[in-house]
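Risk register update: the risk of archive-format incompatibility is retired. Evidence:
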Amino acid sequence: MRPFFGNYVLDEIDTQLVDDYRRHKVGQSRARSAAIEAGRPLTARIRRREYVLRPFGATTINKTIEILQTILTQAVEYKLIPENPAEGRRRRLAVPPKQAAHLESVDEIEALLQAAAGLDRQPRYRMAGRLPSIATLIFAGLRAHELCLLRWRNVDLANRKLRITRSKTKAGIRTIDIVPILHAALTDYKAGCDYTDPDDYVFPTGTGGIRDKDNVRNRVVEPVLEAADELLISKGRSPLPEGLSPHKLRHAFASILAALGTDPDTSKRQIGHTRYEFTLEVYTHDMASDPTQRVRLRELVNSTPPSTRTDEPPNTLAA
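Archived output:
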């Protein structure tokens, strides 16, 4: 807001100026979208790092107007201005119905894996395990709290089985087949892990303690989503859908099971649902129905994950 309103005194900020500001932010957002679509994203350098400038949503723009309204409310209370020009629904953008976020293509899954491996290769992040964590959410369909509670005694790499022994529902207690790409990721991760006793957590904190859902979201998933966006945009592709979360990554597992031709009853049990109809309706998305995506999903499941070793060149996202 400061660049726009910085040169105005209080009594110059009226309803028309607030509306001009709203239109200005919409224009900025469209310019950012156009730049991304053209493969030349706008960037900003913050603390010696280059960030891609993503378009604003209506909710984000409205929040800035709400901040302005809060500031001007105090000015009204101090009798510096007679009324608050930022008040009212007409000063806000209409917020479109929120679409459920989910991974829409194999490209997006590959970008997440590449981004996670890239972060694991960077010692400045002072933690590892992002790649196997993301791979477990996607290729085993764990809920965030299940990921936090997972212990090595429940990961049978020899027989390629992963057991969930604690969950919120009875259906959540289940055994999941470990697909090849996840098996490779977990095997490589365990070989370099400091905590591998049977009762150690598979994805612990740096001191071996248990993570919580907020830690998984903030320290693991969010940095990977941001890095994956930058990777996709650098290849001239659209960024990930807004609103992805650890739980939304689990949705991809249903599409993967469908692509592998897993029967409905097995799919339901491995995901941890009581009704396959619910799985089909809520969790299975376009990847499961698109023939090309199904073929690519099968190929991805049977491939090897990106390397997290600093002495090996990273795999590259397909052009």
